[in-house]
């Protein structure tokens, strides 16, 4: 695994001191209020980079965590438990934080472009990075909301209530912006930005060019543009672990810079319920229906999931027992979780239920010690990552395109390469001892990985055309643990993988998100939309997923 420089909010903002002659109090200024002459481009770019992770994952504010787009996506795609109906998870508060941070970030991108225009030497790398993140963010807004303000956005004098642009036109504009960003990142300059995401010793523009090209590929997959994917597949894209686009956390407490999954589940008691159907796809418990894939536990299982108790849930800890509406209730092997949309009462099981492990949360490795998460003798102390777009994702995307868009390439080879990249990343991520108290080494071996890939290969070779598409989507889903954004797109785009239906009448699956109430209240040009609306690239029939 590449040598990660652990980022904290403090260390990220140390860039404020680089080439800056202002005093400490000036560091508290909002970059939106700084004029072109006084602004430090490193300060502004650091703000943009941090804002993007806030939009995607969320942020701690005065000790409370405000979600980005990721948490609700993980819930509705059954990666973690969804409690209750869809409209209780996706409502007009869900994207308030991401929306406000996005448009503040766009203003800072405008600012850094103005700084560049007024600098005789130029700062093309700063601008290129900012433009890539702006394009990524606008694409996410379109993927979740459809039409959003774009051409009139952040121009309050001319357009105090900006109108909406079509999602399709915004996608096209972002692809053009990515080409502009690639041009800036290909320029010759000695002025290097601080890079929060690609944590090497020196800034490498090629990493950001790879991300820009990969975002174009991602957009082409959503829109079904096979020709664009074929052209992009031979360019500089994210296809090695070293190019993975991720945000790295540290073990710093003040300010809170540990992974939010760790903070919410290891400091006091486990708060997040994990998902029985996701356990089943990992073959965590038994080998009973509905999801039985290859008959062996996923080699990533002990890295993804940590079990706190050496006991089966029962009695008040298993209120679903005997209720026929549940597909699972309990999957077995001491993996405590909940079925999709289970809204039954919550037992006092925080110290007992299974929780996040080493990857991506920076928690504990499951070596059958069965110690309460807050009391483990060894963990990664929150030094985890947000896996935003990984090299494994690229290979799964290319495999899907080969099957559905005729882009060429061997879909099976691309898929198995994606699995291998995911295994390498997850297994190498761990820095902890894997020997249990019983003397057994519980770390997955190369043979375990090879056996897993061989079984998936055999399953794939025996599958129908539709079955092959589902297997690719399933393996992407399993590699994406910690990222609900890409599975949400894949599920709407393909209908795969087959996911557990809600065990209660949960309403229509959210094909789109609702606008934040802060936006609809302040802007009469934004009318609220139902969850049954569809983004422009989602051309599948109404109701085809639940």
TrEMBL record:
> Which InterPro entries does this entry report, sorted A to Z?
SusD-like_2, TPR-like_helical_dom_sf
Any idea what this protein is called? Starch-binding associating with outer membrane
Source organism of the structure? Patiriisocius marinus
Q: What is the lineage of its organism?
A: Bacteria, Pseudomonadati, Bacteroidota, Flavobacteriia, Flavobacteriales
């Amino acid at each position: 695994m590449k040598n990660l420089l652990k980022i904290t909010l403090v260390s990220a903002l140390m860039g404020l001191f680089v080439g800056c002659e202002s005093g400490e109090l000036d560091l508290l200024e909002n970059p939106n209020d700084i004029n072109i002459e006084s602004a430090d481009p490193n300060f502004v770019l650091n703000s943009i980079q941090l804002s993007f992770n806030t939009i995607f994952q969320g942020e701690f504010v005065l000790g409370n965590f405000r979600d980005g787009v990721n948490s609700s996506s993980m819930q509705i795609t059954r990666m973690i438990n969804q409690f209750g109906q869809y409209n209780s998870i996706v409502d007009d508060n869900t994207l308030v934080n991401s929306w406000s941070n996005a448009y503040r970030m766009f203003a800072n991108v405008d600012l850094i472009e103005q700084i560049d225009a007024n600098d005789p030497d130029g700062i093309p790398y700063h601008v290129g990075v900012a433009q890539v993140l702006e394009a990524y963010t606008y694409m996410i807004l379109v993927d979740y909301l459809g039409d959003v303000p774009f051409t009139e956005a952040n121009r309050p004098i001319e357009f105090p209530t900006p109108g909406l642009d079509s999602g399709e036109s915004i996608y096209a504009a972002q692809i053009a912006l990515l080409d502009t960003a690639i041009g800036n990142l290909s320029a010759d300059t000695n002025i290097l930005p601080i890079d929060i995401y690609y944590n090497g010793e020196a800034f490498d523009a090629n990493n950001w060019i790879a991300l820009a090209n990969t975002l174009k590929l991602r957009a082409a997959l959503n829109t079904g543009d096979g020709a664009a994917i074929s052209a992009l597949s031979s360019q500089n894209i994210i296809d090695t672990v070293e190019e993975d686009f991720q945000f790295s956390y540290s073990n710093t407490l003040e300010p809170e810079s540990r992974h939010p999954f760790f903070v919410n589940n290891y400091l006091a008691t486990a708060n997040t319920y994990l998902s029985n159907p996701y356990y089943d796809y990992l073959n965590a418990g038994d080998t009973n229906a509905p999801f039985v894939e290859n008959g062996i536990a996923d080699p990533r299982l002990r890295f993804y999931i940590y079990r706190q108790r050496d006991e089966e849930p029962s009695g008040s800890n298993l209120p679903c027992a005997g209720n026929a509406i549940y597909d699972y209730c309990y999957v077995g092997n001491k993996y405590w979780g909940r079925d999709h949309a289970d809204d039954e009462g919550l037992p006092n099981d925080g110290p007992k239920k299974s929780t996040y492990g080493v990857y991506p949360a920076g928690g504990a490795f499951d070596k059958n010690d069965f110690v309460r998460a807050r009391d483990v003798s060894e963990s990664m102390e929150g030094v985890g990552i947000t896996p935003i777009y990984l090299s494994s994702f690229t290979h799964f995307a290319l495999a899907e395109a080969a099957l559905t868009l005729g882009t060429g390439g061997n879909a099976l080879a691309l898929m198995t390469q994606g699995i291998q990249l995911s295994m390498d990343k997850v297994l190498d991520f761990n820095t902890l001892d894997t020997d249990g108290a019983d003397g057994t080494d519980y770390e997955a071996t190369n043979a375990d990985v090879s056996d897993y890939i061989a079984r998936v290969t055999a399953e794939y070779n025996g599958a129908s055309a539709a079955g092959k598409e589902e297997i690719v989507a399933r393996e992407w889903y399993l590699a994406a643990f910690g990222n609900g954004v890409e599975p949400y797109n894949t599920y709407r785009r393909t209908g795969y993988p087959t996911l557990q239906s809600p065990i209660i009448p949960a309403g229509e699956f959210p094909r789109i998100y609702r606008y934040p109430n802060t936006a609809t209240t302040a802007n009469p040009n934004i009318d609220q939309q139902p969850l049954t609306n569809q983004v422009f690239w989602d051309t599948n029939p109404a109701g085809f997923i639940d």
